Amino acid sequence: MPRRRSKPSTGVPVEARTVKVAAPHANSKQAEELMDLAVDAARSRHLPDFLKRFAARAASLANADWGGVVVFEENAAEFYSGTELTDVPNSPTREWLVRKAMEINGDAQVCILPQEKSSTGVFVPILSSSKERMGAVCLLRPPRALHAHERRLLEALASHAALAIENFRRFRQLERSKRNWVQDIDAITDYMVVHDRRWRILRTNRSLAAHLGVPPVALVGEAVDTLRQLAETAGTLPCPFCVDTEQSREEHIITARDRVFLVSTSRTSGTTDDEARTIHVLKDITDRREAERRYRELFDSIQEGLFFATPDGRFLDVNDAMVRMLGYESRDELLRNDVGAYLYPAPEAREHILDELNAKGVLRNYEETLRRRDGTLLYTLQNITGVRDASGKIAQMRGLMLDVTEQKMFQTQLQRERDFNQKILNTTQSMILVLDTAGLISYANRRCYEAGYREEEMIGRHLVDLVDAAQREEFEAALETTAHGQQVENLEARAKRGDGTLGYFSISLSPMRDEQDAVNSVVVVMTDITDAALLQAKLAHAERMATIGRLVSGVAHEVNNPLAAILGFTDLLLENPEIPASAHEPLGIILQETQRTKYIVQDLLSFARQRPVQREAVRLGAILRQTIKLRSYDFSSHGVEVIEEFDENLPATIGDSQQLQQVFLNIVNNAYDAIQEAGRRGKITLRTKRVGDSVEVTLTDNGTGISDPAKIFDPFFTTKPTGKGTGLGLSICYGIVRAHSGEIQCWNNENGEGSTFLVRLPVATEAAMEATV
Known about the structure:
By secondary structure, the chain is an alpha+beta fold. It is built from 21 helices and 27 strands. The strands form 6 sheets. The protein has a 5-stranded antiparallel sheet with strand order 2-1-5-4-3, with helices on both faces. Strands 7-6-10-9-8 form a 5-stranded antiparallel sheet. The longest helix has 46 residues, at 530-575. It starts with 23 loop residues before the first helix and ends with a helix.
């Protein structure tokens, strides 16, 4: 439309210009125009076309050169007009109009156009019912003030535009919502069907139609009974999915061939009974039911007890193993009865479990004793997890329970047997060791350490190292035999004792086997029989001595009588002058040999004589010095050195001084003879000392030594040449010392020179001293 040129300005302000007031018929025409505009807005279905018509009519009603509408969208602004801006001379750009429209806030505003001051733009905001700015009506006209009736007209126009825009937006939103609802319903994979009270299908979703192989619209109007193929359950209602038409909501399970559906039903009421609808949603739960079946089978097949329980101890679900474990008849019985209080023998145990779960959230390998239905105790090992609600409190306990009653009893029995065996091992008087296959000691009982061995001397070392070198080969052969699975009993061997000395041991070796019946270790039982061996040897020697004593006594008396006759008649023959001189020499030899035989018989009688000991307090030091004096001439003439190491404070002993002197003299004589045989410069050392309740006398020489120390005290045993010894001297010494309640021993020196004799006698007690007074 061509723009009307205005007259030149007269300098009068725009607001002060005279405006002709419209005639009454003009107001009536405006009312009709507004009414037509409202009717047009109600009938229009396309917002852009309506806004274009609205812009032209608004320009006409407002006597403007041009009219347009700016509509605000979410992130942009749309511009609508009945005519193009290029048809209006000196018109502003769309961007300027949109910017000004966005700047206005409140009532209609008049803005001077940027090109010339002779034209103005009028902007009226379009407000929604909630006063939200939805856009603006834009008019271009000559400059003049807005009068009240023009403002009302512009506000009316803006109201019509707002109403139209709101209606169009609501309609568009409704159409979009309906379209989205249909799309959402069709996107649901569950089957949906809607029917009315006449049992006719009103709507199905695409999933159900696709399952039946028909379009959704093909099912509309059909009887809902045509869908009975989805439900094998027989019902009296025309709808195969309805169970109770009185309930507004319901859920139930139906089956169809190999499928299982969960049917959720909702009913809506309309303004009339015919508008009431029933909506069925069929959810395929076949996989879920199969999973539940498998879960239940797995749940019940587990041999450990599984449970779900409330914090107060009531079971929500348990498996069959749990029912058997607690001794109940069925799951229902266990779930029906509140067994929580009965289950725990100690009432505080349940509170302890809750406290631990609240603190940690989970319990691992938790040992707890429970009570079965019959009252017997059940030892369990549990793993429990606490399930918390939205507030963080324990709402449920889920756990796995293992019956360890047999293991507990077995462990208790095993511990009892272990303690019993340990006590036996530690209290036995025998040393018990365990060797590995290499012969190394891996275990030693307490007796080993009580015997003086140190741990570093035992653990990790070869046992054969403790055995005397002369018997190691025999011991290794016994170990080899045991390694092949055979037992070796009562092997006697000399071995190193805890104090470092050699002792006699009785050794038994037993193989130990693993699961494959292979020997993996050897148990060694060692018994120290040193004292027993010595005692047995002494006892055997004493028995031999007693037997020989009785024999010698009888023989000596029988021999002594003919010897007396031989001596008497030989003396008479030598005194008889009638005997020729040539016979004197043979008779002298007879007399000499008979005398020697007499002395032998006297020695035998001394050996066999059982006369009582003269009991008196004696000092061994004095007896030893007197004994040395008896042989001092021989010692000095043959270069034998005698060393005396006497304890001057040595206590007295009770005995016969003459018999004890005979003992020491015999020992000294043997030492002297051994030195003479050795042919070296002799040395004899005598020592006295107190050891406990005994006094000891040791005599050490550097002679030839003793060929067999074990037989040295046997009667008639001698190493001297024939005619120089009877073999009774040390036997007599042995009997004298034993009669004094003492001991006599001998051994060869370790340096290979000479031997040592030991005489041990008891210390005289006060009571013994008083008895001799």
